[in-house]
Specification:
Chain A: It holds the Pfam family HLH. Chain A: One of its GO terms (molecular function) is DNA-binding transcription factor activity. Chain A: This is BHLH domain-containing protein. Chain A: Keywords: Nucleus, Transcription, Transcription regulation. The complex is a heterodimer of chains A (264) and B (195). Chain A has 264 residues and is an all-alpha fold. Helices cover 61% and strands 0% of the residues of chain A. Chain A is built from 11 helices and no strands. Chain A is elongated and about 75 Å long. Chain B has a domain of 126 residues. In chain B, 72% of the residues lie in helices and 0% in strands. In chain B, α1 packs antiparallel against α2, α1 packs across α7 and α2 runs antiparallel to α3. Chain B starts with 14 loop residues before the first helix and ends with a helix. The chains are: A mainly alpha (264), B mainly alpha (195). The interface between A and B is large, with 63 and 71 residues.
Chain lengths: 264, 195
């Protein structure tokens, strides 16, 4: 709601300079751009007045000329709620945020037209809040029924998840194209699974060697035995004291015994 | 169980598991999920070294790795549920085989009823697995899905019955978990084998 009066206030400023043109042009504008809201009509009239400033000799512009101007600049003053303007696809293209309406004053018309054509993302329309729906802007030539909207939302979700996956897989940023990204992901998962297999073999080998090396090992003499073969293992005197407790061993055996079915 | 919150389980006079306790203390990461992974995996590892005969250990260690991954991820994820279901079906099948051996050795009447119940349960699970494998032929509702997604479905556990969108989500989570598991195992190997 707030942008509409402020932008309309912005747009009203040029009209102070050109009162005669405004008076000539505005009724044509308001009649061509049929709106349900006064604010919308003001925005439409303001946009038309803004256009009228740069083309002062267009007083006798007929309505269809104005509507074509709306289309060609893609959205100037037609920023008001113009759901009822006839060409619907172009109409959706011309529905813009009202800050672009403000830009029309400062930039040339063609430039603003190009920039507005480029900025075709699905934004929510700030001005007419008369419905509870989210207004989604369609790109040029795209349909706007429910199915394609859902399709588009789904495709965006998929692309965003692909981006997440690209960040996860190292070296995937350089690849472009969905197919090769998928290939990279598949290769990475396969290599990780092979690594799990290989490491499980190594773990088994390492542990059996360690078990064989420490064959006769009474529990109390833990601290006395030299553990120099594995310097990574830190054994304090305190922890070795705990090893001698029989209750802790029973606790562990009980735990692993109970979880026999749970852990494969 | 409070063991999940504390970093290492209780120390054990058994030498290999004692080394494993130290390994747990050294390899425990900051995040709770990595800690849970380490806890489950190390406990399974110590049990394997105590119980399992040598010739089948590699396979069992690999299965324990996936099971501990699934347990650390929790039941909220489709892939972890699928992995735990696979492990459960495998155990049921093994129990059925054991029962069958017991029955053929000596055939008492009450054991037949219990064994029959086990057969039916295992048969149900295996047929469900077969049905899931067959349903891969008919893809579930994929519109803009590339043909390579089929290979992805085979790699990620439980990926057959998912839409493409959720498949990507599950893949990301599975990748993170898999990477954590590989890091843990690599750290353990480094720890145990510095000579």
């Amino acid at each position: 709601m707030e942008p509409a009066p402020s932008v309309a206030a912005e747009l009203w400023q040029p009209h102070h300079h050109q009162h005669q043109h405004h008076l000539a042009v505005a009724p044509l504008e308001t009649s061509s751009v049929v709106t349900e809201q006064s604010k919308g009509s003001r925005g439409g009239g303001g946009g038309g007045g803004g256009r009228g400033r740069t083309r002062p000799r267009r007083d006798a512009a007929p309505e269809d000329d104005d509507s074509s101007k709306v289309v060609s600049t893609s959205g100037g003053g037609g920023g008001g709620g113009q759901d009822s303007v006839a060409p619907e696809a172009k109409d959706l293209k011309s529905m813009k945020a009202n800050d672009n309406n403000g830009n029309l004053r400062t930039e040339a018309e063609t430039n603003s037209g190009n920039s507005s054509k480029d900025a075709n993302k699905s934004d929510t329309l700030p001005e007419p809040p008369k419905q509870d729906y989210i207004h989604v802007r369609a790109r040029r030539g795209q349909a706007t029924d429910n199915h394609s909207l859902a399709e588009r939302a789904r495709r965006e979700k998929i692309s965003e998840r692909m981006k997440l996956l690209q960040d996860l897989v190292p070296g995937c940023n350089k690849v472009i194209g969905k197919a090769s990204v998928l290939d990279e992901i598949i290769n990475y998962i396969q290599s990780l699974q092979h690594q799990v297999e290989f490491l499980s073999m190594k773990l088994e080998a390492v542990n059996t060697h360690m078990n064989n090396g420490i064959v006769t090992f009474p529990s109390k003499d833990f601290g006395a035995q030299p553990y120099n073969t594995a310097p990574g293992l830190t054994f304090d005197a305190q922890t070795t004291g705990e090893y001698a407790q029989g209750s802790s061993s029973e606790w562990l055996h009980m735990q692993t015994g109970n979880s026999y079915e749970r852990v494969t | 169980m409070d063991g999940k919150r504390t970093t290492p389980p209780h120390p054990n006079p058994n030498p290999s598991s004692a080394a494993l306790q130290a390994g747990a203390a050294a390899a425990a990461a900051e995040s709770s999920k990595a800690r849970m992974l380490a806890f489950h995996f190390l406990r399974a590892l110590s049990r394997i070294h105590r119980v399992t005969p040598v010739r089948r250990r590699t396979r069992t260690i690999r299965r324990a790795a996936y099971s501990s991954m699934a347990r650390a991820a929790g039941p909220r994820r489709a892939w972890s549920r699928a992995l735990l279901g696979q492990a459960r079906a495998r155990r049921a099948r093994r129990a059925v085989l054991v029962r069958r051996r017991v029955l053929t050795a000596a055939a008492p009447a009450p054991a037949a009823g219990g064994g029959g119940g086990r057969f039916i349960a295992a048969g149900g699970e295996t047929s469900a697995a077969a049905a899931a494998a067959a349903s891969r032929v008919l893809p579930p509702r994929q519109a803009g899905e590339p043909p390579r997604a089929d290979a992805l479905r085979r790699l990620v556990p439980g990926g057959d019955a998912m839409e493409y969108c959720s498949l990507l989500d599950e893949t990301a989570d599975y990748l993170r978990s898999l990477r954590a598991q590989v890091q843990l195992m690599q750290g353990l190997v480094d720890l145990f084998s510095c000579q």
